[in-house]
User: Fold these one by one.
Assistant:
Number 1:
Amino acid sequence: MRFHVMTLFPEMIDAAVNTSILGRAIEKGILSVQSVNIRDYTLDKHNRVDDYTYGGGAGMLMQAQPVYDCYLDISKKLDTDKSPRVVYMTPQGSVFDQKMAKEFAAEEDIIFLCGHYEGIDERVLEKIVTDYVSIGDYVLTGGELPALVCMDAISRMVPGVLGNSESGETESFDDGLLEYPQYSRPEVWMDEAVPEVLMSGHHANIIKWRHEQSLKRTKERRPDLYEKYVASHDKL
Ligand code: ADE
């Protein structure tokens, strides 16, 4: 899978992707991340990529031309006939979730577009963007952190990125519930013992206990998810 990131701050992307599990997947050749500086495509003699907004109002807007030329350059270098999804990171997008992470993980190429200032000229967005994606209802200073968040969540859904011991199969959100609590050695820590059922070796009881814990935890911490879960299981 190949990620391409259109940004004014490529060093932000490069600094984050070469570490940890993403870095290992890049080394193994399962993933690649290419950050492309939109400023390299400006035709302005002072290297500017932003300008005032028509109609007035505070703040500057990223101009259409450098964004479009950057996109064309990335696209023409892709060795595929499929036109890639172009994901614009914006608080005005659909809120990113685990289901989207899985869906995006099936793509070969994804181009992320990171905005800055007050946003990007609407005309280029209309021409190139296929998906408007937000990482939550708050406003950040740019799209780089959101793009990194999405790339991280998508990557771990790509086969081979996680090792067996880090498997993404049974975990929070997989069935719409939060994950149950987990314990490791020692058996007693600060007078607190590991729940007895986990020491029993009784597999069916362990599965049942974990499911109950998932339900309880989801109800307490994420009542919104709990309601959805109950509603969808009532229908069955
Ligand atoms: N850019 C600024 N804020 C954002 C957010 N919440 N999600 C995605 N992109 C953004």
Number 2:
Amino acid sequence: MSPKSQADQKEYPPLEHVPFHVGIIMDGNGRWAQARGLPRLAGHQAGTDNLRRILRATVEFGIKILTIYAFSTENWGRPESEVSGLMRLMERMIDRELSELHAQGVQIRHIGRSDHVPERMLEKIQHALDVTKDNQHLILNVAFNYGGRKELVDAVRAIVADGVAPEAIDEALIDRYLYTAGLPDADLIIRTSGEMRVSNFLIWQGAYAEYYVTPTFWPDFDKDELYKALVAFDRRERRFGVLS
Ligand code: IPE
Ligand code: IPE
Ligand code: MG
């Protein structure tokens, strides 16, 4: 048996509570590459390849919604060559993976803004959303050109534009104006590469998420690592501010 098929057949003891909605801050591609003496884009390529196996593992572990942080509104500030390289990699990822994701029943959604995004990329994103819109197996929210604060700004603008009366504004209404409208809050947010910060990711929807940080760089974060995060989540006691 090849090492790969051995890994595929590995048994993972069942968990009591599998998080319904998991967010991942896929961080550390640059440092992964640097540690190997490779250019940063090689790290982004490895990170993109890793996404494929983590998506498969996500479905196997029974997670229903996965929100991945792919590109933040702040990431435009990186060197032009890195930004354009990332756009190219992401376009290629859509081209290569769309049919398999569709066959696996993955519904792709985009959360984030459209401004600054190259026209061709926008068309590819729209195509991916259209093709997969009726799939029900896993919702994959791609946070691309996403910022949690900009999401709140966009929500406030839309609320004002709709002429909503101040007394009608409550948490449920704000929820309905977010990019994630209709989806439940994140239960577990994983950050790879060891940084202990939120970096503007799901700041509203993560208000009561459990956080899990691993020093592993994103390209090395595999199915075993995901399972470890789920075990840690399973052991947490979620109190939501009340007494247990
Ligand atoms: C995460 O990896 C991917 C993106 C932000 C697009 P980084 O590129 O941030 O990698 P590090 O943090 O510099 O190692
Ligand atoms: C967060 O990582 C954004 C993504 C993973 C897409 P960053 O690398 O941009 O965050 P900081 O700069 O370490 O806070
Ligand atoms: Mg980073």
Number 3:
Amino acid sequence: MIIIMGGKASMKEIKAVQSKLVQEGFTVHISKGVTRTIIGVIGDRTRAFTLSIDVMPGVEKVIPILNPFKLASREFKQDSTLIEIGDQVIGGKDVHLIAGPCAVESRTQLLECAFAVKEAGATFLRGGAFKPRTSPYSFQGLAEVGLEYMAEAKEKTGLLIVTEVMDPRLVPLVARYADILQLGARNMQNFPLLREAAKAGKPILLKRGSGATIEEWLMAAEYVMLEGNHQVILCERGIRTFEIQTRNTLDLNAVPVIKRLSHLPVMVDPSHGTGNWWLVSPMSRAAVAAGADGLLIEVHPSPGDALSDGQQSLKPENFQDLVREVSQVARAVGRVVNGARVGG
Ligand code: PEP
Ligand code: MN
């Protein structure tokens, strides 16, 4: 539930409400607005209502949160969450481009890619060092060496790093290199991993499971947030439907639905969402028009030679075209790409 303290509530009254709830075993989040203080309460709802908080001095209103997700819900926090990473802000006016190869394959492949996407206007470099492959016989990633190449690319280009962690035991290692920890679609409901990754204190890019409802996805975000890490970026990457023309069905409904239900930023990955390089640009434009806060795009210097996901990877020149097109759509909906340093 949410407790709204009246405009004239004193510090003492706010503290009294807080201590009563904490004493009873509830988790309390206080947000001080310009005119009012709002207290968010997490715990057994039925019991919370037996505490008669509504009659305590200074309390204006007690509102139940109807959704099963609490910390992630817009009822709980009305202002959109802004996530600051380095000199970038996610969830504000900027539409971010997170681009790079599916997997880090070699030093030259990664550096070539990093310089190309930086030049085109990306603000983050993506690349997997630990890859979640359907077949155990497929390329699994370069592991720590891949992370070292990512660190070098960051140093040389200034791009911030997004990379996936799949194993709770590897969270400290991956978190040393990553500016954003990616949790993949296959692990959306790997609850021990969600908890462990949250504890690293880095922003989390939480991909939607291919069979997950939006509510299940937000409940996964709730696991991260309950560990005290509120820096969660949701990422729609397509769901499995009966349609087989595309690898997945990119559910762009999810963007405005998330914006309505939650205060968290939401991005779109049209590479995995479609599985075809020629669909990436049109669906990127659609995603930005729908209100996405960023795009995750697979780019490879030579997609035909890629060790994973070559068919959905853009050549650097196609990525450049995409950035130009997306910037125009961004402008039409009151957003900018890379602080409007790129455009068309
Ligand atoms: C990826 O982004 O590299 C990836 C494996 O995506 P997903 O988890 O969405 O399949
Ligand atoms: Mn991929």
Number 4:
Amino acid sequence: MADLTTRLVNVIGDKSFKPLEKAFDMRVVGDLLRHYPRRYAEIGTPTDLSDLRVGQHVTILAEVVSAKVTKFGPGGKRSRTEVIVTDGKDHLSLTFFQQPWLPKTMTPGTTGLFSGEVTSFNGRLQLTHPDHDLLDGEGDMAKSRLARGVIPLYRATAKISTWNIENCVGMCLDTLDPIDDPLPEPVRQRLGHADIRAAFESIHRPHSIAEAMNARDRFRFEEAFVVQTVFAQRRLMAENERAKARPFTSAGLRDRFENQLPFELTAGQREVINEISGDLDQAHPMHRLLQGEVGSGKTVVALLAMLQVIDSGGQAALLAPTEVLASQHFRAISLMLGDLAKGGMLGGADGATRVRLLTGSMGAKARNESLLDAASGEAGIVIGTHALIQDHVQFAELGLLVVDEQHRFGVEQRSALVDRAEVTPHVLVMTATPIPRTIAMTVFGDLEISTLRELPAGRQPIQTTVVPAERQSWLDRAWERVREEVGRGRQAYVVVSRIGEETADASKETRSLLELVEELSAGPLRGLRVGSLHGRMASDDKEAAMNAFSTGGLDVLVATTVVEVGVDVPNATVMVIMDAERFGMSQLHQLRGRVGRGSEGGLCLLVTTSEDGSPSRERLDAVASTSDGFELSRLDVELRREGDVLGARQSGMRSSLRLLSVVRDGDIIDAAREAAGVVVADDPSLAAHPALAAAVQELEHSEQADYLERT
Ligand code: ADP
Ligand code: MG
């Protein structure tokens, strides 16, 4: 007898095991049982043959019309068998070589599964040398499925067919001991879900499609439930964790800063800062995600939170994903604080604090100063990149950690800083990529969420236009617009895409950027001061280029996506994005958020070679159609696949979600979150729920493995 952790090879034998291990990384019985059928065929309902497309790998259910053998070759030793099958309307030809015996079993009227790649021959579709499995009632599996009338169809490979898998699954089900269910019985009962043993039976050997769908719903819920249990545990742990309360005190730095702000906070900003302030006032750590449209003013909100912490005797760290962004934050925050950031310096205000920068490429002297000020507590705010997370960085009293652009940091990196502090700091995570609620719940389910929806008043919208590259007059007009803006004393970005995907050849990217700079300087932008910024530059040079641009020493900055996040030059009013189809929608949205940050409206030109009506053009049109990041992320999710939505970072999570769609299954995720909350509140360590505890551990383990792979 077997349970879910029994080695699969022991049940199904080496011959079937090898290809399953190779293709799907299966090891134990549970791996195979969770390889759910992709779809089902109903005996008596043949596959619609008019839907077939050349190049598809298909498994069809069809009836044999005729089978004919042709001999050829020397002495007629070679043979070709042509079998015609039908779905009742259309016909399809199947060609087999060297199997002259086939007509014996493939008699007219026989039904079978045929699996192979659709090809075209003389203008007609056919399957060449398909795998086949006749429903002739021989063998136990065949008898059982004939009796049930439903055939499961699995994701298969050339080495192992769907009916081989069906057979292996059958062997596992037949030897399966009773199993512990990760879904607690009360939860199952309330939602009307079958227990796991019965559900495995129903999803693999259903008597009707409806039965299979019910089982599928149950497993879909189970996936959501395990994820939400992890989050419920993390939230509960956070509640029990002790932190130092950092209540708001009047007449401190926060108050003084607010009073000297050159603008009114928006209602949204006020609301969010109140939420954060309330969290900081608690004796357990805040875990909050602040999401807001690009330019919605998250930095100011974060700064107010940092000042509140400083006012109550703590320090704040701001973690940025890139050096450019860290320096940018450093400059912007120092500038905004003015005299309030000149603690112990000439011209510093009474009770002023200090802001320090810490990045990997800083000189030893500046670095030591920062380290000293962090350790002594002189620096109320320390801003940095990954360098901040390293072991030797000590804080006198870290009270708040702000993480900018969360999706680039792992949960574990966050905790690296948090775990080291003697008293757990509060954590605020900021992201400018609006996340649909269901995804936020699945990916950031352990965080409370605050949202900034409005942009500061008076902010001009960004106008976005798609510029087809082949329309020379449009392209000319685009560069003319850049010249006009520069003529009015404004500045422009030109953004160059990565070449290809992850495998981006950085030197190629750099080359194409430098070529473009040359081309533009000699041609359409002649006479303008054009500079460049890319990832391969030494960080001093990067810094210099960024500085030159932000102080007006350059008219045009040609850059790679290093400008994507958070770069803030209010005088820049136009952005030209080259090969725009190579960027994701949210990335384009991020990028264009770099212009129109001042009182002037912004203009974003998406230059593309993608054809009108093509999918990539559709995405660009969508970006041009709305400046609302939330609306855009909804459109984006509709146009993308699940895996891309969760992002490469969540691949551990992703592989555990076989049926659940974080895009479509919002209701299920809601229900699971609620149910998991109840179970965890009752039994925080899941002592009474061993199967659930095991599933939770497995998920956390795969997330962990993910993280280790990344570092
Ligand atoms: P985000 O980080 O959300 O993209 P920032 O915090 O960088 O946005 O803010 C963008 C710009 O808007 C900054 O120059 C900032 O000073 C300014 N700003 C922030 N809040 C307001 C407000 N309430 N009114 C006017 N300008 C604001
Ligand atoms: Mg920002």
